[in-house]
UniProtKB/TrEMBL annotation, chain A:
It comes from Oryzias latipes (Japanese rice fish). PROSITE patterns: PROTEASOME_BETA_1, PROTEASOME_BETA_2. Component of the proteasome complex. It is found in: Cytoplasm; Nucleus. The lineage of its organism: Eukaryota, Metazoa, Chordata, Craniata, Vertebrata. The keyword Protease applies. This is Proteasome subunit beta. SUPFAM superfamilies: N-terminal nucleophile aminohydrolases (Ntn hydrolases). Signal peptide: none annotated. Residues 238-269 form the Proteasome beta subunit C-terminal domain. Belongs to the peptidase T1B family. The proteasome is a multicatalytic proteinase complex which is characterized by its ability to cleave peptides with Arg, Phe, Tyr, Leu, and Glu adjacent to the leaving group at neutral or slightly basic pH. The proteasome has an ATP-dependent proteolytic activity. This subunit is involved in antigen processing to generate class I binding peptides. Component of the proteasome, a multicatalytic proteinase complex which is characterized by its ability to cleave peptides with Arg, Phe, Tyr, Leu, and Glu adjacent to the leaving group at neutral or slightly basic pH. The proteasome has an ATP-dependent proteolytic activity. The active site is at residue 42. GO terms for molecular function: threonine-type endopeptidase activity. PANTHER family: METALLOPROTEASE TLDD, PROTEASOME SUBUNIT BETA.
Automatic annotation (TrEMBL), chain B:
This is Proteasome subunit beta. CDD domains: proteasome_beta_type_1. One of its GO terms (cellular component) is proteasome core complex. InterPro entries: Ntn_hydrolases_N, Proteasome_bsu_CS, Proteasome_sua/b, Proteasome_suB-type. It comes from Oryzias latipes.
């Protein structure tokens, strides 16, 4: 079976169908503003250590300045040996990683092998470049395969970088400061986890778009340890008074009950196979 | 280079032509975040604000309270553009001194509110980007809250929230202090302790969901004994 059948060959050239549609939409909405998609406003970080790769992410999703989700999952499953952190537009990172994961699952079923990280990177790069930046996904891909431990970043326009340590998202500069200071080649597992945790924590404290808890994902040749949450936020929302409303506080003004009359139209019996 | 900007309304490629020199305007305003709240009781007034000063996605300071003590019976809370907040409070302080020297008495809360309205309107065509709320005691010793818009329109209220999380706080205050949207509930008058607890809870909630609110909460409680200040930590992330 030729592998080229497994993955859909994409249409040649650039694809701007949605961009043209969006431009046409601009006139229809009031004020000429199309609805703004939810952005994650994130801190994600990754580090290659002696036995594998550690990925970390915060858990806050913001919709401009309001926190939309306090416990959103930014580390996505791609395959048993590859995980991906996503920053940027939430829908784009979700769908892109889902698409990638499906494609790679079909590939592994056909070939009987775990996919290599470089395959995942190439598929992502192809797809994002074809949409020329319209898909706002900043991704950090980390995984372990037969050729070693790899950490890649893929940008929204399709740029790829292979690096030993990395941070992305609105809190990337804060996290990168910690990573630049503490990174060494061939770290031990606990040191690597602590470094990633410190980097994401720095993003959480200094960037308004990141916050709440920290998720960590450790990928080694033995398997994957997805720790969610690795560290719960130390800020608990404790309130002084109990806000309870007695029954009847919201008044019922009118009540109208309409019974639904049902009549039997068709009756079929299907025998169940019981042993 | 092809990009979505090259597509016009009908979806066809826009004609590329030289549109003239593009102008990048310098914006004289910045938004520094922050939330302010004031509640008036029978014989007390509370003005509370968070202490975070931010710009964009960064934090300038975790300890920059937005409550300014004007007199022994009046506190002003202002949020918005920090540069204008500082200038406005300097101007108000100067005017308070001038009044004291001319009239040999301290300005009352109502008088300060009226004066602030004229100061703000004098800059009608280049406004102070500040959301003001005054909390204090009036001549009878009752709690008073005056809320303003950036160009000086004001009214006396029982409670008001202003700043970045105001849309989240105001409905909650309407329900808990104004007893709106509730039936069969006894309208107990607000005590000072209950009001302080409510203000703390309401800011804890605002810090959960608004990225610009957090770090710490400064509460100024104005009574006839004087102004008492409390500092409560909020989430820092």
């Amino acid at each position: 079976m030729a592998l080229s059948n497994v993955l859909d060959s994409p249409a040649a050239g650039f694809n701007f169908d949605n961009a043209a549609r969006n431009a046409a939409f601009e006139g229809l909405f009031e004020g000429g503003q199309t609805p703004k998609p939810l952005k994650t406003g994130t801190t994600i970080a990754g580090v290659v250590f002696k036995d594998g790769v550690v990925l970390g992410a915060d858990t806050r999703a913001t919709s401009s300045e309001v926190v939309a989700d306090k416990m959103c999952a930014k580390i996505h499953y791609i395959s048993p040996n590859i995980y991906c952190c996503g920053a940027g537009t939430a829908a784009d990172t979700e769908k892109t990683t889902d698409l990638l994961s499906s494609n790679l699952t079909v590939f592994s079923l056909n070939s009987g092998r775990n996919p290599r990280v470089v395959m995942a990177v190439n598929i992502l790069q192809d797809m994002l470049y074809r949409y020329h930046g319209q898909i706002g996904a900043n991704l950090i891909l980390g995984g372990v395969d037969c050729t070693g431990n790899h950490l890649y970043t893929v940008g929204p326009y399709g740029s790829v970088n292979k690096v030993p340590y990395l941070a992305m998202g609105s809190g990337d500069l804060a996290a990168l400061g910690i990573l630049e200071d503490g990174f060494q080649h061939d770290l031990e597992l606990e040191k690597a986890k602590k470094l990633v945790r410190d980097a994401v924590h720095s993003g959480i404290m200094n960037d308004l778009g990141s916050g709440n808890n920290i998720d960590i994902c450790v990928i080694t040749a033995e398997g994957v340890d997805y720790i969610r949450p690795f560290q719960e936020s130390e800020f608990k929302d404790r309130r002084e008074i109990k806000y309870k409303y007695r029954q009847g506080t919201t008044p019922v003004l009118t009540k109208k009950i309409t019974p639904l009359k049902m009549e039997v139209v068709q009756e079929t019996t299907q025998k169940m196979e019981t042993v | 280079m092809l990009s979505a900007q090259n597509f016009g309304e009908s979806g066809k490629m826009k004609e590329y032509h030289y549109a003239g020199p593009t102008e990048h305007r310098f914006s004289p305003y910045a938004f520094n975040g922050g939330t302010v709240l004031a509640v008036a009781g029978e014989d007390f007034a509370i003005v509370a604000s968070d202490t975070r000063l931010s710009e964009g996605y960064s934090i300038h300071s975790r300890d920059s309270p937005k409550c300014y003590k004007l007199t022994d019976t009046t506190v002003l809370g202002c949020s918005g553009f920090h540069g204008d907040c500082l200038t406005l409070t300097k101007i108000i302080d100067a005017r308070l001194k001038m009044y004291k020297h001319s009239n040999n008495k301290t300005m009352t809360s109502g008088a300060i509110a009226a004066m602030l309205s004229t100061i703000l309107y004098s800059r009608r065509f280049f406004p102070y980007y500040v959301y003001n709320i005054i909390g204090g005691l009036d001549e009878q010793g009752k709690g008073a809250v005056y809320s303003f818009d950036p160009v000086g329109s004001y009214q006396r209220d029982t409670y008001k929230a202003g700043g970045s999380a105001s849309a989240m706080l105001q409905p909650l205050l309407d329900n808990q202090i104004g007893f709106k949207n509730m039936e069969g509930v006894e309208h107990v008058p607000l005590t000072k302790d209950k009001a302080v607890q409510l203000v703390k809870d309401v800011f804890v909630s605002a810090a959960e969901r608004d990225v610009y609110t957090g770090d710490a909460l400064r509460i100024c409680i104005v009574t006839k004994e004087g102004i008492e200040e409390q500092n409560i930590p909020l989430r820092k992330d």
